[in-house]
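Reopening this ticket.

The earlier resolution said the output was attached, but the attachment link was broken on my side. Pasting everything inline this time so it's all in one place.
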Amino acid sequence: MARTVRFHEYGGPDVLRLEDVPVGEPGPGEVLIRVEAIGINRAEALFRGGTYIEPVRAFPARLGAEAAGVVEAVGPDVAGVEPGRAISVVPAFSMNDHAVYAERAIVPAAAVVRRPDGLDAVGGAAVWMPYLTAYGALAEVGGTRPGDPVVITAASSGVGLAAIRTANRLGAVPIATTRTDAKRGALLRAGAAEVIVTGREDVAGRVLDLTAGRGAALVLDAVAGPGVLALGRAVAPGGTLLLYGALSGEPTPYPGFDLGMPALNMRTYTLFEITTDPARLRRAEAFVRSGLRDGAFRPDVDRVFPLDDIAEAHRYMEAGGQVGKIVVTV
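Inline output:
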């Protein structure tokens, strides 16, 4: 048995329950891990609330796709991962099939990466999802090149901070957006070339000013909703508006016709495009490891909660005041 977070109905953080649940043994292609720390992601709040990109198949349901821990056992057909190894789990599976909000969890071996020496469990639960997401969006999908202006919305999130550093490592020019001035300094310290405060500035106008009227090669947007009309104006001809989140919770129009049918590419993107493709994941892992080795990348941890306070951790995430990742220790 292991203490495991489950929920028996859709709802807010208060539906989360810590319950003793049988763990079982790892099957083919699976590993059993002792969880030390859990990375909290907005996808889990959406799954809990019934607004995620996939619904809960059956209640009670479980949560979590990012963690750090130690391998306890491996199932058949698993190579390269052995008991006693310190590892991280990256989001590469449905939470209907596997979940890591627990003291012990079974996960696919394909979702396990070795934890670099010197990276503790909290860092190991905080670093992979943001940087794999950012690398995949900018390098694999966006084709970002040196000198390209890249606009990053909701830039104080874990992914946003990772995207700033990833853009810099690729030689691009990261332009961060944030709602208020409160996080402006943190974004500049993270490496943003410019910060646009959306509560008092015209995003498209500022981007066009900063790029001599041309616009951004890539806009990495976590907000979606009607704001894509303004963001579409900020994209250079032939550039891409890449949507990886929907924080607005509002319908998202296609802005091309309203803007006079410019040469605008607009598409959605999820981390699964990287983590479920072995070749892409291999490249992404190597990229992130190189940044960790030389100090260009680091985990950005805003606050750490104990597992007993999982509901409070979700409430804190939904309040939106954090800069970086929220981590839960087990």
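Reporter confirms the inline version is readable. Residues 2-127+299-329 form a domain with the Quinone Oxidoreductase; Chain A, domain 1 fold (CATH 3.90.180.10). The chain has a mean pLDDT of 96.
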